[in-house]
Automatic annotation (TrEMBL), chain A:
Source organism of this protein record: Ovis ammon polii
Protein name, UniProt field: Hemoglobin subunit zeta
Keyword Iron: yes
Molecular function GO labels: haptoglobin binding; heme binding; iron ion binding; organic acid binding; oxygen binding; oxygen carrier activity; peroxidase activity
GO biological process, one term: hydrogen peroxide catabolic process
GO CC term, one of those recorded: blood microparticle
Functional summary from the UniProt entry: The zeta chain is an alpha-type chain of mammalian embryonic hemoglobin.
UniProtKB/TrEMBL annotation, chain B:
Species annotation: Ovis aries
Protein name: Uncharacterized protein
Lineage: Eukaryota, Metazoa, Chordata, Craniata, Vertebrata
């Protein structure tokens, strides 16, 4: 699975808007993840996950920054996320199902903040892009 | 059996009252077919599904979307007995329509995303959680009679 040129254009152009609110988007995505899929909290026993927590904000920023790295290297996501891929495979070992949950929550956050931009085409492009990112992050699992 | 708290019921029914079911239904089914093109396999008779704009403007997609979301609305009136409410529809989807229940989950998530585009900031994480619980429960109820 790879993105068409049209899909890449959509993702890259929406990113320029998203990046101005990156931290808010990242934090909200995680809040949605932990509210809707509480089992995801099992990977963060060492975190204060309450709304407004500094750790939540810091981690949300990290996650969105990584998505941004993938966007900036949209022609070679595997290379851009190679270290993160190894981290998830050998250290974090987050079950792959959780990438679907996180991706969905990011889509909901984008839809909520940018309703006019989040057309059916944009929804499709982003869903596919996040699916690709998730694939890269789990490709070294076994 | 799924149990919805008073807060969850309020979140669900409160938001539902503001939804234009005809419009949202068409949008939901349309987006399902655009974002997950393999779901088009059930709709060979619907005519032009060749692009996102063709799909979103297709009158058969809109009509069927309205039907589907209206049925979803019935779920909201029967939160305490979803399996009972959807028993017949479950049999239909298995025996006559041959729809993989995974499609119910995909549609449920598309509905959640549409609610997010319509309600923006009002669609908080807690709101989303109540709605994910509902769409999950409806998907399970529709799959319950499969054999």
């Amino acid at each position: 699975m790879s993105l068409t040129r049209a899909e890449r254009t959509i993702v890259v152009s929406m990113w320029s808007k998203i990046s101005t609110q990156a931290d808010v988007i990242g934090t909200e995505t995680l809040e949605r993840l932990f509210s809707c899929y509480p089992q995801a909290k099992t990977y963060f026993p060492h975190f204060d996950l309450h709304s407004g927590s500094a750790q939540l904000r810091a981690h949300g920023s990290k996650v969105v920054a990584a998505v941004g790295d993938a966007v900036k290297s949209i022609d070679n996501v595997a290379s851009a996320l190679s270290k993160l891929s190894e981290l998830h495979a050998y250290v974090l070992r987050v079950d792959p199902v959780n990438f679907k949950f996180l991706s969905h929550c990011l889509l909901v956050t984008l839809a909520s903040h940018f309703p006019a931009d989040f057309t059916a085409d944009a929804h499709a492009a982003w869903d596919k892009f996040l699916s690709l990112v998730s694939g890269v992050l789990t490709e070294k699992y076994r | 059996m799924v149990h919805f708290t008073a807060e969850e019921k309020a979140a669900i029914t409160g938001l539902w009252g503001k939804v234009n079911v005809e419009e949202a239904g068409g949008e939901a089914l349309g987006r399902l077919l655009v974002v997950y093109p393999w779901t088009q396999r059930f709709f060979d008779s619907f005519g032009n599904l060749s692009s996102a704009s063709a799909i979103m403007g297709n009158p058969k997609v809109k009509a069927h979307g309205k039907k589907v979301l209206t049925s979803f609305g019935e779920a909201i009136k029967n939160l305490d007995n979803l399996k009972g409410a959807f028993a017949k529809l479950s049999e239909l989807h298995c025996d006559k329509l041959h729809v993989d229940p995974e499609n119910f989950r995909l549609l449920g998530n598309v509905i959640v995303i549409i609610l997010a585009t319509h309600f923006g900031r009002e669609f908080t994480p807690d709101m989303q959680a109540a709605w994910q619980k509902l769409t999950n429960a409806v998907a399970n109820a529709l799959a319950h009679k499969y054999h």
